[in-house]
Design brief:
Strand order of the largest sheet: 5-6-7-3-8-9
Number of domains: 5
Largest sheet: 6 strands, mixed
Oligomer: single chain
CATH class of the largest domain: Alpha Beta
Radius of gyration: 27 Å
Structural class: alpha/beta
Shape: globular
């Protein structure tokens, strides 16, 4: 038996209703970077607690080399509510101590930026507490570091920083990392080996997440297992990875030829053209159009509507000793003049104008009192008329004069820092918030469904059993061209038939998330808005959800910090930065490049949506190249498709006469010259790389 630095020897563990481990022998060597995956409830977090010593095995033993230090980030932090951030996260370090050393200063600025060191832990939001606990852990030196879902509550920029930090935290061959996360890009970026926890055992695999998927498919093929659905999902995901997944294109960890042999008979992830046609038949030509939309939150009144974490951060930052942030999201401020008949106008209320909110509150109270008394408000209250008045709203612009057209079958992903206004943008799209200025045109046939971060929708159904809830829907649906019952869809999402009699309130967080998605799909919406859909789901369930969305015929808008999921289920990605929606032809990496440019004080490259037809044409061609250009086999095809797309764009543009185009200030001659230069460059690339 090998001598592990930290290991399990013939460990068995069972809880009341489930065997977690059965005679497991496995361990960690110095230099290991191990990602741990498995279904929810299979024992990933329990495994870390066994290593930490906070969970005792039923039999066997846990061994640890003398003098080894072990640090763990748990899903529940141990921070004292009455302690300050300085006391809990910095553990009493003076400013000169952590600021003098580059590594510690970077950790503090990345995780505690914008938070007052004198703020009480109990006053922080859940996201801020998570950051404080992670900072506390990373500021210490550990021989072995165990992280349980470290990316929760972090935005894309901070997740990218954390990945770089963990890769460079120890010299090669030193230290060890145990990582439990559902973020597949993070696993691929950081880990050099994988453990799959399932059915009471731990199966090791070499390489990151991509290599794990390859080996798992090969293992299933050789064993000829009966789990056909699970195997097919894995092969489908491997197909996407192999065919140029941008989320992991820079770190190819498996043999491409072997992977292609395994997925030779797997069709493309989704038939975009067919889905577009089906979506158009359901939706018509118009879905949601944002026309010159500006959304302002007056001072701090509406900050909570942007992001609860941001509201807490603003309150914290009003105190002293605020840590400077590693990356400061650019913000647009200004004012808009709004003509209204009275202060209850929703534009003013949704902008957080104090007088408007007070007037709206008073109006609601008067209406409630009228209903309770049984009085007819129309008869008892004389009609009041008032002349239109102009009100100036001043504050932060979440959206700054944005024009964005969303059509049938569009699959858009949205990224941005915490507090950029992503959730606010979603509320404007579905009509929940009325923008301060501009217009939101929603198609007549649009039927929205929103998968929010909160599970409030399920709380109303808590007392009902799953079977009772499903009985309210149609007996059958067409999924993937086949007739499917709600029960079969439920099983597809990882539920067992025995769970039909389980009350909704007794489901776990991950099960509630899946049930929320199931009920939304059963309502048959044609526009689906998803805000952080990957929360509480393991990697297998994420693959199942992605598979369901692959054949969903409608318009899809997704906000997520999970770049793998985002680029997997959407066709185009956008970033919300400084009140503008910017197209990301190269996926999330373009957004990271933009944030890096902002940190360096340079101008952001690219254009925002709505900047003119020529910009849209160039962005469309760049999207085509971005999908395929990473792989040699697709370079010539990408260039050909790009040339054709640009040709079509040129025809359309020139048919619009020679007028200057809105927001561009260039004529058709310049457009034509630009296109010719672009095509020439593509031809040169094709020739050189042949």
């Amino acid at each position: 038996m090998p001598t592990y630095d930290l290991g399990l020897e013939h460990v068995s563990l069972a809880f009341a209703t489930k065997n977690i481990f059965t005679d497991v022998t496995q361990g960690v060597f110095e230099g290991d970077r191990i990602g741990i995956v498995g279904k929810n409830g299979d024992g990933k977090s329990t495994l870390l607690h066994l290593f930490k010593g906070t969970q005792e095995p039923d039999s066997g033993r846990v061994t640890m080399r003398n003098g080894l230090t072990f640090g763990m980030l748990d899903q529940r932090d141990p921070l004292d509510d009455n302690a300050t951030v300085r006391e809990a996260a910095l553990e009493g370090r003076e400013d000169y101590e952590w600021a003098a050393e580059t590594k510690s200063r970077e950790i503090v600025e990345a995780l505690l930026g914008g938070i007052s060191l004198d703020a009480k832990i109990g006053s922080l939001s859940g996201g801020q507490r998570r950051r404080a606990d992670l900072a506390r852990l990373l500021l210490k030196d550990w021989d072995i570091l165990a992280l349980d879902e470290p990316t929760n509550h972090l935005d894309v920029v901070t997740i990218h920083w954390l990945a770089e930090h963990l890769k460079n935290r120890w010299p090669s061959g030193q230290g060890a990392l145990l990582l439990v996360t559902h973020d597949r890009w993070f696993l691929d970026e950081v880990c050099e080996s994988m453990w799959e926890v399932h059915d009471g055992v731990i199966d090791p695999f070499e390489g990151g997440y991509s290599a794990y998927m390859l080996q798992r498919v090969e293992r299933d093929r050789q064993a000829d297992v009966r789990e056909t659905k699970r195997r097919n999902l894995a092969r489908k995901e491997l197909a996407w990875l192999t065919r140029g997944a941008r989320a992991r294109s820079t770190k190819q960890k498996f043999h491409v030829k072997a992977a292609r042999e395994l997925i030779a008979d797997v069709p493309p992830v989704r038939n975009t053209l067919e889905l577009k046609q089906m979506a158009t038949s359901r939706l018509g030509k118009q879905v949601v159009d944002l026309i010159d939309v500006t959304q302002i939150f007056e001072h701090a009144q509406g900050e909570a509507d942007i992001d609860p974490d941001v509201a807490e951060m603003e309150a914290s930052a009003s105190r002293v000793d605020v840590v400077p942030a590693m990356y400061a999201e650019p913000q647009a401020h200004g004012s808009v003049e709004v003509a209204v008949d009275d202060l209850t106008d929703p534009r003013l209320v949704d902008a957080g104008v104090p007088e408007a909110r007070q007037a709206a509150q008073a109006a609601r109270q008067a209406e409630e009192e009228s209903h309770e008394s049984g009085d007819d408000a129309d008869e008892s209250t004389p009609e009041v008329t008032s002349a239109a008045q102009k009100v100036t709203v001043t504050g932060r612009k979440i959206l700054d004069d944005v024009t964005w057209l969303i059509g049938p079958g569009d699959r858009f992903g949205i990224v941005g820092a915490n507090g950029a206004g992503k959730s606010t943008l979603l509320k404007i799209l579905d009509g929940t918030i009325t923008p301060t200025a501009g217009h939101v045109n929603i198609g007549k046939t649009v039927k929205f469904a929103v998968l929010s971060q909160r599970l409030d929708e399920l709380e109303k159904l808590g007392k009902y059993k799953i079977k009772e809830v499903l009985s309210r829907y149609k007996p059958s649906y067409i999924v993937d061209g086949k007739e499917t019952t709600p029960g079969q869809m439920m099983e597809r999402l990882g539920f067992e038939s025995a769970q039909l009699m389980t009350p909704i309130k007794d489901l776990s967080g991950g099960q509630k998330r899946r049930m929320q998605l199931l009920l939304i799909l059963l309502d048959e919406p044609n526009v689906l808005i998803m805000d952080e859909p990957g929360n509480d789901l393991d990697t297998d369930m994420l693959a199942v959800m992605e598979d369901l969305l692959d054949t969903w015929p409608g318009t899809l808008i997704v906000v997520s910090h999970d770049r793998y999921l985002l680029e997997r289920v959407t066709d185009q990605q956008f970033a919300l930065i400084g009140g503008k929606i910017r197209h990301l032809p190269g996926g999330v990496q373009d957004y990271l490049d933009m944030t890096e440019a902002i940190k360096n004080g340079t101008e952001i490259s690219g254009v925002s949506v709505g900047d003119g037809p020529i910009d849209a044409a160039f962005l469309a061609i760049e999207q085509i190249i971005g999908h395929h250009y990473e792989l040699d086999d697709f370079q010539i095809k990408a260039v050909t498709e790009g040339r054709e797309a640009m040709g079509h764009a040129l025809v359309k543009l020139r048919s619009s006469t020679g007028k200057l185009y809105s927001g561009t200030g260039i004529s058709t001659d310049i457009i034509g010259a630009s296109i010719r230069a672009y095509v020439s460059a593509l031809n040169k690339i094709a020739y050189e790389e042949g």
